[in-house]
């Protein structure tokens, strides 16, 4: 699998993403000022960070970077796009995913281990998980409170485009298991064609038993398996 | 140069308002043989205040052990450096931002983190972890909540955006800090041991380059303020608050590291307290060179700034460097790529003078070495604290049952979980946090391992107050124990000595004796002090804080897979108590 | 020329900051405040020939960047 | 009664947000914008007998919570 990790000036989890992708093929870093993706890119990753300081709205300025045109074209061709944390914020600002990420309900940045429920496992991103499985994953964000108008939420739910929901260790949803006040405990959403995923948690930080656990690995393994099964997909 | 061309005229009041004592001013007159200009007075006040000159503490700091075979750089540079094997070095330091954090907790704490990160990456190291040590007033004091919320959010905001995990710290409360909280921040970075960068300039006629944010009127006289104790009206007199911009700092980090790889950097120094003045003077003085600055070229945020303001501004996220003229173009490419302001603002000279020009006029012309070397050095009178009466535990009736005492203890703000604090810090970024906050010491993996570092910050001011010598020893011993408890070999220390007004013999006595204790413990444990910071005049309305010499300890683990954690693992296991 | 842009959350969009402020004001015994919604302003200095040109530039700035029209409305005020 | 509170950064205080926006607008070819400073507004609904009472409550809210007077100024607008 050939991955392209987009580097904005204030990205800071690009190294974490590189490490998670390393076992699954080649990963290249692409500067935000570039206008093209490397030939043969299968997966575009927008990593975590504070792309432009994020003083206005998270991801707002990054969404206008020159490279984003190529990212849109890639997505329109059906190519895979993964936006993690700030990457998710950029994707909604850019319009590849619906909704918006507001300040956390308790108005504090929050970093901790958190469980999320895998809502479906029949996608390129989640085939290595079981539907309904609760996985332990890290969150680290100040603005991860997913909001959209009622119609959008209805559509997302109706089309099964919610990828992950915040839950407790048993997979149950509750107010206390929702760390940031997201509508319907949404932690990640898919695009209409399920080739674009945005999520607030950091699977790339859970790939090592020494550092918190390995529940994040499944996502990268799913992507690699998807690519292996459909080598000429894009 | 005419010393009368500038306003305001130099009066005893003006001298005093610059924090210079009459005898210190006499020393200036003797040194330069004339009345200083207003700009020069500002320079002296910045260089000779407690914060920059360590005039009350220098004498006593000399007694600390700072050497060991693994020490690459001890105190005196931006940060200390130790060899951790495999061609790698660990660069670290702790620094206080106490007064600014009391005035504006969010920005004060944020810029404290920014400053200490710059100290570390100035040396060529990529920061890998931050820690802090916080002391607040009594929980029920009306300002405490506001201060805690602001400080914690500020530390988090800066470190989280910059992209370095905040992996540990300490937080406690005591009424002795009601009017003067402590915010000590520590940063740790990793570099190749043969690629460390220093502040010492070399070569005559080399360009001095300014890089980073533009200069504004932020914190003018901040360094002087940091050395003046709080009076009731301190809140009215505050200077313009410094605002941190972690995004620019991140760009500065990447640009500096990229620049260093090109071989263009001869010397580098961050502009911290006393800004441009102290960074330029230090670079020249360390290299036995003169420095000539032309302030017309300085990138400014505001119009009409005077030389005095430019020299003393404490605007954040700025660096000064001496570049190899042959590599100027490569250097420029890095500045442009990262979108930072830069300008050639001067050159090195062979005159050993610090010359500042602005608007076609010479605003200052001073002997560069003496600005540092001739700074006052005081052996302040000190008296040791009276020994406290020993209490025989057998003679005390327990006021409550042990079980009740335990419940009360674990409910105290000092002992309760600090999760509320450290959850606001990204402690997982970089994916190397093997032991996260909440344990004895943090453990981070280096690269892909198996090597790692253990990091901790500790002090128990209660002990230092009761017996400064023993308290100083204990702080070091606790740091040492916390490192060994996670399986690390303790290697070196950074300290942050927070005390009251050194002009009071009993406070100076606390300082001297704590330092003796720290020195003795460090010697006994082969645990040298490689960097640190002194923060004096921590008083409000004439009352000093409890003596608080914070200790930051660094240890090395050869295999992070073999670390012990604090939690009991399963029921039925035996519990051992080790020690006396 | 100086101008101000005001960006507010659309009606119906939940405002966690406003809610938190309402709660905090109550806790501080500031009475009589029924609701708070937080927004942003941008004080802009610009070079523009006239009022119309200024408004055009500011609208462009809002649509391209300053406001997220999924959830926000904007208003341009030129004195 | 409805009112608006405007909180702006004091002169001379660095505004990293404004700076980032200036840079981004340039990159987006929105021309003619010389400087941007970002501030906050609070749209408040309140129970108050009259204009004077409303102003008093809002000032109290600003001093206690809405503005950080070390770095910010505030203004109360009651239509
Ligand atoms: N300000 C802080 N920043 C990061 N971690 C903290 C902070 N305060 C406390 N912690 C974490 O919580 C643990 C317990 O805190 P505390 O009781 O203050 O320290 P200690 O037990 O070391 O005396 C610390 O060891 C540290 O890991």
Integer average pLDDT of chain B:
93
CATH class of chain C: Alpha Beta
Shape estimate of chain C: elongated
* CATH fold-level assignment of chain C: Mth169, Chain: A
Strand order of the largest sheet of chain B: 8-10-7-11-9-12-13
Anisotropy-based shape of chain B = globular
Number of helices of chain B: 19
Rg of chain C from C-alpha positions?
Answer: 16 Å
Portion in beta strands of chain B: 15-25%
Q: Could you spell the SSE succession of chain C in H and E letters? A: EHEHE
Low-confidence blocks of residues of chain B: 1-5, 222-228, 230-238
**Spatial strand arrangement across the major sheet of chain C:** 2-1-3
Whole-number average pLDDT of chain C? 92
Our measurement of the CA-to-CA distance between the termini of chain C, rounded to an integer number of angstroms, reads 9 Å
Which hetero compounds are present in the coordinates?
Answer: adenosine-5'-diphosphate
Description:
The complex is a heterotetramer, with one copy of chain A (234 residues), one copy of chain B (580 residues) and two copies of chain C (79 residues). Chain A is α/β, with parallel strands linked by helices and 234 residues long. Chain A has five helices and eleven strands; from the N terminus they run βαββαβαββββαβββα. Chain A has a single domain (2-229), classed as Rossmann fold. In chain A, strand 10 (186-190) and strand 11 form a beta hairpin. By secondary structure, chain B is α+β, with helices and mostly antiparallel strands. Chain B has a seven-stranded mixed beta sheet with strand order 8-10-7-11-9-12-13. In chain B, strands 1-2-3-6-4-5 form a six-stranded mixed beta sheet. The longest helix of chain C is centred in the last third of the chain and has 16 residues, at 51-66. Adenosine-5'-diphosphate binds next to strand 4, strand 5 and helix 16 of chain B.
